[in-house]
């Protein structure tokens, strides 16, 4: 039995039907995962319907045909008009789940582990499935940080408030960039000389102000953030907008000791992880920002997948976690599984490093060039 769920044709999001003699306007799609709405599919017809004949594949709307019924549970589709017998109807997913074959779901990992490692005469005689699932999710989380391909990328159009909310599954950032008119990502550098502290209110004499419950009263925005954010946000000229430091003012005699970290006009940012926002400098207002970040792999059901190169590492991690948390297990057995886990993770890292000799040689050729500063 093949490992594809469905046919290879279905993997590419394609279903084809030949119109029969009876019930010519009724057919049932059979993708492994059915679409949840008509907006996810396009329906094409080659032939004649509603008095219109076309020799090439055309959307049913060009025949004046519509979908009168669509059952999301069974995939049954009923058209408003009957095509001619022998015609071909094609259903194509707008966004097929391509590339999924290289991954295995966390449910399959748990099921495979129970089959291969648990039972009489096997390394783990007895274990609850809930325990296996717990250790599988913990292993996936740890492997996501430095082994698996767990990075994600999102694009965000920055508003006038200069704030970008952190994604729900954000753990750490890899890179932030602004996108120029040619689609090139210009790297943004973090600013380490500003922040967004909690703005505690106080009296003129210096005492803090508290509410009726004895808690600090805080302002909605700190003066530090207001100063960082302000100045000419409605001005369309980047040159008139405020940057983060005065190091970019190219005045005579003021460039001695310039910090290269801040010597950029791309813009800057800092991350307020406590409040879950990324703060940007004002020259980035209305710009497209790309954030590449690390996920823990547990944010949603669709995220809990493991690359097949790291599948064995997952099994070794689960086995070691179960054995190391059990009582009356001899220490040399635990050390054995620890070594096997380490070796499997190292192998997975090498496989997922994706080094290609031709690409590496091309990069090394560039390193041989002499760059004058």
Care to describe what's here?
- With 373 residues, the chain is an alpha+beta fold.
- It has three domains: 8-93, Sandwich (Immunoglobulin-like); 103-149 and 303-360; 157-295, no CATH class.
- 24% of the residues lie in helices and 23% in strands.
- The chain is built from seven helices and 17 strands.
- It has helices at 8-11, 106-117, 129-146, 223-229, 311-324, 331-352, 357-367, and strands at residues 14-18, 26-28, 41-49, 52-59, 67-70, 76-79, 88-93, 103-105, 151-157, 163-165, 170-179, 185-187, 189-190, 268-272, 277-280, 288-295, 305-307.
- It has a four-stranded antiparallel beta sheet. Strands 9-16-11-12 form a four-stranded antiparallel beta sheet, with no helix packed on it.
- Strand 13 (189-190), helix 4 (223-229) and strand 14 (268-272) form a beta-alpha-beta unit.
- Helix 2 packs across helix 3 (129-146), helix 3 (129-146) packs across helix 5 (311-324) and helix 5 (311-324) packs antiparallel against helix 6.
- It starts with 7 loop residues before the first helix and ends in a 6-residue tail after the last helix.
- Residues 232-245 have low confidence and may be disordered.
